[in-house]
Design a protein that fits this description.
Helix content is about 35%, strand content about 25%. The chain has about 300 residues and is an alpha/beta fold. The longest helix has 18 residues, at about 255-270. The termini are far apart. Bound molecules: adenosine monophosphate. Adenosine monophosphate binds near residues 11 and 27.
């Protein structure tokens, strides 16, 4: 069985949407990634830090899925706290507050039995920390995915470029791709970014799906049209978790198989947005994922009749 290691934030999130609000709920990138990848029964570990105030039940939710949390450090400070508000246009999010707390002093330590992980997801955090994780890994043939955000694109561009050149897949949104490349066209942006030395690039476009780039090839995965988007928080991380879980399960990192991974990622992300925070992922079953994959297939498959 392939091992999947995810490193990144664990947080308490307060989320306000036009449909209501939830306070201090289970959040952070690796919470979403771990729960999403758990659908695939791969051997998983998550690495992060929580504060003394982090509810035990949130960590239990990961441990119950047999995710190794031995290197989730418990700090004497408070947990990373993040709050955000969505308006009627769910694509626009306003961050109200970020209190880094324990996450500010985080130094990731990979569990000894996961240093040989073949699949690694480096969640959004300071590029120097992402590098620290890479330096602890020993597997010769591994597949490493990276997430980042505008904050690091602006503040630590050199460190970010360096880590991008060292990974296999970069997963960012359209705004970040434009900012990172200085190009407006996403196709041009993609080629500019791949020139940094990363062979696979995913550009997420929220409810408009995601593009996968590799050399001169492109693949487009739509987002499943939903009746109602309740809370988009974590959709990007659920998408990445679905992709990495699927890749770890199949062990195949070809461009062709990566297309399947994107469809799985989009399917799991479509569940994530149906409820507040991680709630829907916590209740998600394999059967539900399978049924929605089939809906996805009928939505996107067609035979063209040439006139
Ligand atoms: P997404 O909706 O995919 O952007 O992910 C939202 C998650 O990112 C929330 O659960 C937050 O707790 C987490 N988050 C917010 N700010 C940061 C940050 N500066 N570094 C790492 N994770 C963060």
């Amino acid at each position: 069985m392939n091992k999947l290691l995810s490193v990144g934030s664990i947080a308490l999130d307060s989320i306000y949407t036009p449909f209501g609000f939830i306070e201090r709920t289970m959040g952070g990138a690796v919470s979403y990634i771990g729960l999403s990848a758990a659908i695939f029964d791969v051997e998983q570990a998550v690495v992060g830090v929580v504060g003394y105030d982090y509810p035990k039940e949130y960590l239990d939710a990961l441990a119950d899925r047999e995710i190794d949390i031995s290197q989730v450090q418990v700090s004497t400070e408070r947990t990373l706290f993040w709050s955000a508000k969505y308006h009627t246009d769910m694509n626009a999010r306003q961050t109200l507050e970020t209190q880094l707390n324990a996450f500010a002093g985080f130094r990731p330590v990979v569990p000894a039995h996961f240093t040989d992980a073949r699949f690694v997801m480096l969640g959004n955090m300071e590029p120097s920390l992402q590098l620290e994780v890479l330096q602890q890994l020993t597997a010769e043939h591994k597949f490493v995915a990276l997430d980042t955000m505008n904050y690091w694109i602006e503040r630590t561009p050199q460190e970010l470029h360096r880590i991008i050149s060292m990974v296999d897949l970069l997963c960012i949104n359209d705004e970040e791709a434009r900012q990172l490349s200085g190009e407006y066209s996403l196709v041009r942006a993609a080629h500019q970014i791949m020139r940094l030395g990363v062979p696979y690039l995913i550009i997420k476009k929220g409810e408009h799906g995601a593009l996968l780039f590799h050399k001169d090839e492109v693949f487009f995965a739509p987002a499943l049209p939903l009746d109602e988007v309740f809370d988009p928080t974590g959709a990007g991380d659920a998408f990445a978790g679905g992709i990495m879980g699927y890749l770890a399960k199949s062990g195949d990192v070809s461009f062709e198989n990566m297309k399947n991974a994107l469809i799985y990622g989009a399917t799991i992300a479509s569940f994530c947005v149906e409820s507040f925070g991680t709630k829907r992922l916590l209740a998600l079953t394999k059967d539900e994922v399978l049924r929605r994959l089939l809906e996805f297939k009928s939505l996107t498959q067609f035979e063209i009749k040439i006139a």
